[in-house]
Amino acid sequence: MTAEGHFAAIAMPMPASDETSRPKLQRPRQVKVPLARAMGELPRLWTIGPRASGDLLRALGELALARIRLARRTAQQLQIPDRPDPAGTDAPAPDADALTVIERVSRAIAIVAPRVPWRSDCLVQCLAARRWLAGHGITARISIGMKREDGDGLLAHAWLAVGETIVTGGDIADFAAFPAFPAKQRTSSDKQRTGR
């Protein structure tokens, strides 16, 4: 998929093909495990224990759902990037139990993402992990940022964080985060439709 196709979902304008002065926008290339190798690894699910196997199967389901949601909704509908807390307070640091869940989710998503046959790059992984963590009552925030590559390129990337803990997205030190979408103001027609 081209960069234009990837970023169409977040309504980001792309430079016209005749504009040579602007940098080209790219997304990181995702390394995929060959299908034959992934299928050969299936018997190992029985040897890693029920909890780890369950985590990998849950990651598979969450990645599939995230991919479908990303294809059917806009970035603003999916709240990407996430809006900061309206009270202006940062999320508290996760406690020990939350850190254990975060580690399990992070590890399972990282293992399964390169082994699925559909696109499951950084944004899909963020959506999957955010939904999984929300089921455990853990609030996570998706950020999208860019960094300048050698030459004229810009590299776009998404990551998920709980407080200062990065869940998916790896090393983000060189990326500058985009601001979140502004909150949508409710109109009188929205209030009439919802009855509130």
Write a concise keyword list for the protein shown above:
196 residues; alpha+beta; 6 helices; 37% helix; disordered N terminus
How do you describe this structure in short?
This protein has six helices and five strands. By secondary structure, the chain is α+β, with helices and mostly antiparallel strands.
Describe the structure.
The chain has helices at 3-8, 35-40, 50-72, 96-112, 122-134, 188-194; strands spanning 24-26, 141-148, 153-162, 165-168, 176-177. It is α+β, with helices and mostly antiparallel strands. α3 packs across α4 and α4 (96-112) runs antiparallel to α5 (122-134). Strands 1, 2, 3, 4 and 5 form a 5-stranded mixed beta sheet that branches.
- Helix content bin: 25-40%
Number of domains: 1
Query: The biggest beta sheet, please?
Result: 5 strands, mixed
Give a count of the beta strands, DSSP E runs of length 2 or more.
Answer: 5
What is the tally of helical segments? Answer: 6
The percentage of residues in β strands lies in 5-15%
Kindly provide the radius of gyration, computed on alpha-carbon positions and rounded to a whole number of angstroms.
Answer: 18 Å
Structural class: alpha+beta
Low-confidence stretches: 1-21
**Average pLDDT for all residues:** 76
User: How far apart are the termini?
Assistant: 41 Å
Q: What's the layout of helices and strands?
A:
Blueprint: H1 3-8, E1 24-26, H2 35-40, H3 50-72, H4 96-112, H5 122-134, E2 141-148, E3 153-162, E4 165-168, E5 176-177, H6 188-194
Helix pairs in contact: 3-4, 3-5, 4-5
